Known about the structure:
This protein is an alpha/beta fold. It is 45% helix and 11% strand. The strands form two sheets. It has a four-stranded parallel beta sheet, with helices on both faces. Helix 1 (11-20) packs across helix 3 (77-84) and helix 6 packs across helix 7. The relative contact order is 0.14.
Amino acid sequence: MTENNEIRITKKQTETAIVKIPESDFIDKQYDVDYPQNLKGIFFLLSTPRSGSTMICDLLYKFGFCLAHEYFQPYQYLPILANRWGCLKEDLLDKEKFINQLIRFRTLKSGWLGINLHGSHLPIYYNFKEYFPSSKKIFIRIRRRNVIAQAVSYEIASQTEKWSSKFKTDVTPVYSFDKIKSKIKAIKQQEIITDVFVSSLNENVIEIVYEDFITNPSEVLYSVIPEELLKKVIVEPSIKKQSSNLNKLWIDQFNQEFFKTNGKGIPAKKQKLILPIRIIKRVLPSLRKYIIR
């Protein structure tokens, strides 16, 4: 973003972004619609990374309500759309045209447009909001109770670039106390930005908790979105929960390391020595039967 709040998007930035995103992602051209429609309202999902927002967007699309996505994510999604929808002039983004195209290509037959906004996207969205027409608005905010688990998931996804079950990766993530701690701070900072944004609204913001949502996703959405807007049909999310044994191991390791070191973490050099010892302790029971007494 320039000093005048202009957004510059280069050709190289767009080409790099396109390579990283799978065709199954909602940002792909196959999900653009182009038919006459009347914008009835905008659904805003206020979220943070690894909070379950992608699964919510997936379900809402299957319900036929809206196609919510991270349209103001500046690293891949915004460049890809701005380029495809002809919103760039000499690498500068035409904000008004982008909003018009967003409404044109992403408003479903229901008349609703959906937008998923992480806390980090809000300063960018703020520079576009004047170009949206007046309409009904629904604000839902999702949080996680277990921020440590969220930070671990965030760090694993950052290393592997596997942001949902639709992304493929061959990268093996490496545990880092400092990086997970940094992700906790990043999540907290995004929550603060969202707090400020919510404070600036004269709107009702409904909050849901990830741990409640994940146990029965459809029922939670039925409880927070007006009945006349969400058809009661049986749908299963195509986005799968990504938590694995690795997540659990990292959470346990982080928690133990945090309390043993008063939150400072074990220096990297000592980690290299500790890891083999832990491996030996784990495999030793299975080797005992081979030991000659």
